[in-house]
Amino acid sequence: MISEREAAKYPFLDDAVALVDTLGLTLEDLADPGYARVLDRAENRVSQAILSGEATAELGDTLSELLSFPVANMFVTALKEDFLHRRYSLAEAVRAQGLLRGESDARLAKIARLEFDWDLKLREELIDGIYYKFELRFKDYLGNAAAFREPKWKLVNRMMRNGYVSLTKPEVCRLLQEEIQRQIIGQVSKRRRLDISETIQGRVDNLRKILDENRSRLTGGELPSDVLMEGFPPCIRHAFEGLTAGKRLSHMERFALTSFLINAGMEIEDIVSLFMSVTDFDEGFTRYQIEHIAGLRGGRTKYTPPTCSTLRTHSVCYNPDRLCEHVKHPLNYYRIKVRDHQREQEAEQAE
After folding, report:
1. By three-state DSSP, how is residue 165 classified?
2. What is the pLDDT of residue 262?
3. DSSP three-state, residue 161
4. End-to-end CA distance of the chain, in Å?
5. pTM of the model
6. Model confidence band, residue 152 (pLDDT cutoffs 50, 70, 90)
7. Binning pLDDT at 50, 70 and 90, where does residue 297 land?
8. 297/290 Cα distance (integer angstroms)
9. In the chain, which residue ranges form alpha helices assigned H by DSSP?
10. How far is CA 159 from CA 19, 108, 120, 166, 178, in A?
11. Which is more confident, 27 or 166?
12. 189-223, pLDDT tens digit by residue?
């Protein structure tokens, strides 16, 4: 059986969930003043995720730390915000990754195998000056590394032998972070009825206020007035709305949206701020990519969005309307919409 301290460190583990279940804690119990510390810590976990995108590990009171996790999950579910689901789950997953880095290699492998059914082996080897400690079956690797944008995670750039990918310990922890985030977001995004007391509802209301006060900062605000969102083709609008909701876009969606906004006249700083809504936002990396697409770096080539045909090939085309049937490029769609908008404004001014 898992210890209380281990369960507090990794409350998403099956054994940790089982330990909480043995306590028989109910929603009615949480209204008791004796559980105020649990509620305080749960509220703190969510507010940390909202304000800083981080979650600390407070193991001085292991029972409160353990119990606060399912309560925090309940708070996030009650708030019914897809953006918060992603931000909170990432914060908790990053917290877990930090703790996993301090585990022994054997303990790390055990968690990966038993909790996530990974085919992970211990194998120490020094290759090209890099100290690898693990081998992971390529299907388990791809299941988590596919979402990463850095070239080093591409399978073609990895050392692979007999179907196993060589990994360093930090890399295993990063892949586990992805797995943990996916598990937590699956828990908090379930739509279910919650019969919560006034005490708990008050906590949810506090978190709602914090979320509303920071929503604009976290979602990048609104488009500049000189960029006509009403003129966006459906595919670009869909990508834009997904981005501002904190969704992780595919590489093609990201490129199409960024190159479209650049060519629509949006400033680099405004585009960077839009990507702040992504929970693992890295300003330096994001800025470099945007400036490269804008022709300010590298070969100084300013890129335009892919054609409609290319977007369809990559499953980025979304809910095409009648105008889509008559254009072959997203920018042509936008130019027509902007022209029509200008004509409408001129007609209104003439009346």
Report:
1. strand
2. 94
3. strand
4. 79
5. 0.69
6. confident
7. confident
8. 9
9. 4-9, 14-23, 27-30, 36-52, 62-79, 82-100, 105-116, 138-145, 169-188, 198-219, 234-244, 251-263, 268-274, 283-293, 308-313, 330-350
10. 39, 21, 15, 6, 21
11. 166
12. 887 777 778 888 999 999 999 998 887 666 555 54
Nearest Cα residue to 76 out of 48, 97, 36, 56: 48
Query: What is the overall mean pLDDT for the chain?
Result: 89
Task: Say if CB 229 and CB 334 are below 8 A apart.
Answer: no
Structure tokens that stand for 193 in this block? 């009825």
- Four-residue CA torsion sign, 260, 263, 265, 267: positive
- Identify the bridge partners of residue 136 per DSSP, sorted by sequence position: 120, 165
Kindly tell me if the per-residue pLDDT of 314 is higher than 60.
yes
Amino acid 66: pLDDT: 97
Q: What's the Cα-to-Cα distance from 229 to each of 29, 83, 274, 310, rounded to whole Å?
A: 49, 21, 14, 22
Q: Which one, of 203, 38, 202, 183, lies nearest residue 115 by Cα?
A: 183
Token pair for 87: 């931000």
Rounded-to-integer distance, Cα 98 and Cα 10, Å? 11
Distance CA 220, CA 278 (A): 10
